Task: inverse folding
């Protein structure tokens, strides 16, 4: 069974469609979403409806939660805040309710999916070093967990200690645990502008991070036309 995992789509329809087209050529049996369907970019409705219509298991991201809620956004940075305010206005009450009902953590087959970290998922902790990963692993009871949130693909392996692996293609060792950040479809931040997602081949016990080119300038034009902060358009071409 081959599973595509994608997340941090952030309302970037051009990137989402490119990833789905790429996955369509990879003999995929199932698609799973690691959250943050909306926020930042200009197509929240189309991205939400596409994920919903595929019926794929999905976990909630912090932007999904903020877009669904009515709380003040003042503690966020001004650019994220402006985009979320705009996103709230685009979504119907029913779409916001759908977002609010997404689960924080899911176990699918033999692995776990969470947006941020299994260490207090509702606090949206970032995993950016091996100490964050160690806190996460305390709560991971499957061999593999997929997540996102930092928009940077990254793999941690736990055997007797936790180490970060530098690779795009991984063969899973049966006695190890893995925390695999699949990167971001709609707003990568690792300096590579291409959309990022992962394919997990369960029979072969292999995970590959894939990068997919998409029409960045079209996504940028939509951001400008929607009167969203220009910085959101600029960052897409740098992958920052
Ligand atoms: Zn995100």
Result:
């Amino acid at each position: 069974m081959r599973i595509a995992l994608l997340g941090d789509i952030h309302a970037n329809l051009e990137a989402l469609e490119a990833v789905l087209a790429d996955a369509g050529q990879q003999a995929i049996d199932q698609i799973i979403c690691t959250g943050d369907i909306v926020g930042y970019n200009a197509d929240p409705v189309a991205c939400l409806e596409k994920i919903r219509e595929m019926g794929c298991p999905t976990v909630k991201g912090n932007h999904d939660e903020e877009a669904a809620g009515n709380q003040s956004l003042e503690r966020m940075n001004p650019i994220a805040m402006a985009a979320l305010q705009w996103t709230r206005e685009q979504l119907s009450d029913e779409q916001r309710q759908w977002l609010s009902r997404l689960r924080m953590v899911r176990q699918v087959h033999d692995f776990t999916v969470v947006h941020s970290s299994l260490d207090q998922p509702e606090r949206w902790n970032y995993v950016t070093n091996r100490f964050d990963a160690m806190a996460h692993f305390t709560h991971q009871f499957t061999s593999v967990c997929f997540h996102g949130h930092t928009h940077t693909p990254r793999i941690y392996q736990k055997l007797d200690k936790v180490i970060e692996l530098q690779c795009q293609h991984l063969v899973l060792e049966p006695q190890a645990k893995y925390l695999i950040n699949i990167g971001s479809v709609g707003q990568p931040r690792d300096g590579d502008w291409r959309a990022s997602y992962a394919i997990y081949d369960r029979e072969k016990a292999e995970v590959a991070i894939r990068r997919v080119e998409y029409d960045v300038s079209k996504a940028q034009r939509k951001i400008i036309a929607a009167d969203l902060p220009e910085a959101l358009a600029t960052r897409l071409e740098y992958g920052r």
Observations:
- Residues 8, 10, 36, 61, 63, 149, 151 surround zinc ion (CB under 6 Å).
- Residues 78-90 form the longest helix (13 residues).
- The longest strand covers residues 195-201.
